[in-house]
Amino acid sequence: MDAITATDLPPRDDAELTVEANPADEANPADEANPTAAPRDLGLGQKTAEGLSTMTPVARQTEAGDRDLGDVALRLEGLTKKFGSHRAVDHVSYTVRQGSFSGIVGPNGAGKTTTLMMIAGLLKPTSGTVHVGNVDVWRNPRDAYRRIGTLPDRLRMFDQLTGAQYLGYVGTLRGLDKHQVEHRTESLLDTFELRGSANRLVVDYSAGMRKKLALASTMIHSPEVLILDEPFETIDPVSAGVLIDVLIDYADKGGTVVLSSHSMDLVQRMCDHVAVIVKGSVIAEGTVDEVRGDITLEERFRHIVRGPAQPEGLDWLEISFG
Ligand SMILES: Nc1ncnc2c1ncn2[C@@H]1O[C@H](COP(=O)(O)OP(=O)(O)OP(=O)(O)O)[C@@H](O)[C@H]1O
């Protein structure tokens, strides 16, 4: 599907969230009524480069099964999206617990991006609800916006800024004060190994560097839930290892990660929860072990998506070397 960004989305019925908006400037009535509704600060901004230097630059198993998962962090109920007569997402319902890594997998066109963008408050559902904690994303979009960090499928960035300026800009849009913006920008540049490119224009970044910068920016406001569409696409294996460790650290602090990926191996190693979506519907959902049974997730996925029958193949393809 085409890239979805906050700036080119269709207008919404309720308070619109755009990158220009600074929700911190407006008090949310829900917060006033319920002081406990304020988003938790996960303290990511206090992380120092020194502390992060102990991270091993190789992917490791999350030990997700050992992590104590908290209350329900995310609840999808009957989430449906129709484009014209086409049902891209059809009554998707499940819950994700706090501190969890949840993967959405499925073949091309299954509805993963559409689902993630509805969760993130960037694409209005045709019907159904999304709750982050006890906040209805589509009834209280500004409150939800503070709680969520989103990496869309194809992100348009302000590429005439330097990497450092970009993080500072996002931090300011997210309502951080000057000190927080400076501190977290420095911390994120070190954590995501972008220090050497901090003063280069984003337009000159490689695809992987842009992805890392975008990922860093999703964390700057210390959100409760990260919605990451293909976060490891274009990322080299060493950087992927660093990112995985950053995300594990985030989950250990109580953050919740929802990601899509075509890498079954990565989802099997990283995630404790997985939903398999085919043609807009959840075909299998639960812990990774429940879904895969006694075979690998990749084998289960192939079986679910394709069944035992194999396609005919390109028997007609003959190459001759003259
Ligand atoms: N804006 C749109 N207008 C019409 N149809 C759309 C739109 N966006 C997505 N679709 C359709 O919705 C379905 C789901 O698309 P989606 O991008 O969510 O799939 P996906 O699982 O993320 O695929 P991929 O793995 O290829 O990224 C597809 O059939 C797609 O063609």
- CATH homologous superfamily name? P-loop containing nucleotide triphosphate hydrolases
Query: How would you classify the helix and strand content by structural class?
Result: alpha/beta
**Strands of the biggest beta sheet: in what spatial order?**
6-7-8-3-9-10
Describe the largest sheet. Answer: 6 strands, mixed
As for the CATH topology, it is Rossmann fold
What is the chain-wise order of helices and strands? Answer: HHEEEHEEHEHHHEHEHEEHH
Shape: globular
The number of strands is 10
Using only C-alpha atoms, the radius of gyration works out to 20 Å
Query: Domains counted in the coordinates: how many?
Result: 1
Low-pLDDT windows of residues: 1-65
Mean pLDDT: 80
The CA-CA distance between the termini, in Å, is 41 Å
- Portion in helices: 25-40%
CATH class: Alpha Beta
The fraction of residues in strands falls at 15-25%
Q: What does it look like?
A:
- The chain has 322 residues and is an alpha/beta fold.
- The chain has one domain: P-loop containing nucleotide triphosphate hydrolases (Rossmann fold, 3-Layer(aba) Sandwich).
- The chain contains eleven helices and ten strands.
- The strands form two sheets. The chain has a six-stranded mixed β-sheet, with helices on both faces.
- The longest helix is centred in the last third of the chain and has 16 residues, at 237-252.
- The protein is globular.
- The structure holds adenosine-5'-triphosphate.
- Residues 74-304 form the ABC transporter domain.
- Its main location: membrane.
- Residues 1-43 are annotated as: Disordered.
